Amino acid sequence: MHAQCDIKNRVLADGTMTYYFDPTNFYTTKSKSLKINIVTDKEHFFIALQPSPFPPKKEGKKIKDDLVIHLADKNVYRLTHYDTQYRHNDSVMQVLYLIDQKDIEAFSKFEAVVAEINMEGTEFVRSYDFKLHKDAIIKQLACFLKKEDK
Fold first, then answer.
1. Residue 103 DSSP code
2. I want to staple 71 with a disulfide (CB 3.0 to 4.6 A). Which of 3, 15, 78, 110 is the partner?
3. pTM of this prediction?
4. Are 67 and 76 in contact (CB under 8 A)?
5. Other CB atoms within 10 A of residue 120 CB
6. pLDDT (tens digit, 9 = 90+) per residue, 130-149?
7. Residues 6 or more apart from 31 whose CB is under 8 A from it?
8. Residue (of 126, 127, 129, 98) closest to 111 by Cα position
């Protein structure tokens, strides 16, 4: 059974159209959660993380560190910090990390195992084992890549 390709889109302030999925819970406890999804502008692919709780805008904008993800192929991938966004009247903070073009294939084949996150000012400054939805990235990328083949 494959994931439903329920792709959403929205236009950014600069007029760029972006496509994304509703975020999936990647890590969750009673006091905090981290959601993850793929965002694309059709040229680049990003992993978006939504931490909760999250710091106010002034603090959140200090998040500049890259995201490091270990995939099931036993390799380690570094995703460059791209942007920190506050949305829905600042009720959601989303941090975007760019997936290197050369790594797209690996991300679309291998499950995510560990994410090394350093989101300064949030509770997410350590390594997290993917327990939920290890294949969320694979499924979402598959939807986008399939659409592009057409």
1. G
2. 110
3. 0.85
4. no
5. 13
6. 776 788 889 999 988 886 55
7. 53, 123
8. 129
